[in-house]
Design a protein that fits this description.
Four Helix Bundle (Hemerythrin (Met), subunit A); 76% helix; single chain
């Protein structure tokens, strides 16, 4: 199977290079977006240190830790899928992508349980019986919901992309050995994991690190 060249590219190499460049631009824009959230978090953390520690101690650290382990494992399975693609091992590509999708779905399931727990314990902005009666505590919780929610949206997009790629590889719908698609998909998935690695200490270790 040969890879199709699409206009306005003169050859396949330039087409792949353009695809990778486009992804790097997209990843840079995502880092800028999350960077804005991190800066906002830092400013409010500086303004309300005690409230952030008290509110952070209310988060479900055990669920956050489980999800951190899940995403780290998914990075390994995605890396294995990319390596298998470079080596031309279709079966291992399929296994790596399937495991990555399964781990991503597991992460979303655990996150759903955590959100249910948060709501049942009134750990959301505007709750009548909010557990921490300190100025700035609800700001932390608002940032917690915003950051984890945006991350969950990006992970959902990644899951759809992994599922489509898995189907296309299995059905031989494109020349997966000679395209940059697996590499590009791997970069996106690792970005999602990297963002969570930053979120974990900010949202779950706050108030517990001392």
């Amino acid at each position: 199977m040969t890879e199709a060249r699409h206009d306005p590219f003169h050859d396949i190499a330039r087409q792949r290079h353009a695809a990778e460049l486009g992804l790097w631009v997209f990843l840079a824009s995502e880092l800028v977006f999350f960077g804005g959230l991190f800066v906002t978090y830092g400013l409010y953390r500086y303004a309300y240190p005690s409230a952030f520690e008290a509110a952070g101690a209310e988060t479900a650290i055990w669920l956050g830790t489980i999800n951190t382990a899940i995403l780290l494992t998914s990075s390994a399975t995605m890396a294995a899928a990319v390596w298998a693609g470079e080596a031309g091992h279709k079966r291992h590509v399929l296994i790596g992508l399937a495991l990555t999708a399964l781990l991503g779905l597991t992460f979303m399931g655990v996150k759903g349980v955590e959100y249910y727990k948060d709501i049942s314990e009134s750990l959301y902005p505007g709750a009548a019986d909010f557990p921490v009666d300190m100025p700035g505590a609800q700001v932390f919780v608002g940032l917690y919901w915003a950051m984890t929610g945006v991350h969950a949206v990006h992970l959902s997009i990644g899951l759809v992309a992994v599922a489509i790629t898995l189907w296309r590889v299995r059905a031989e719908r494109f020349d997966w050995q000679n395209t940059a698609l697996l590499h590009v998909l791997g970069l996106y998935w690792h970005l999602i994991d990297l963002i969570w690695i930053v979120l974990y200490p900010l949202l779950y270790l706050m108030g517990r690190s001392l």
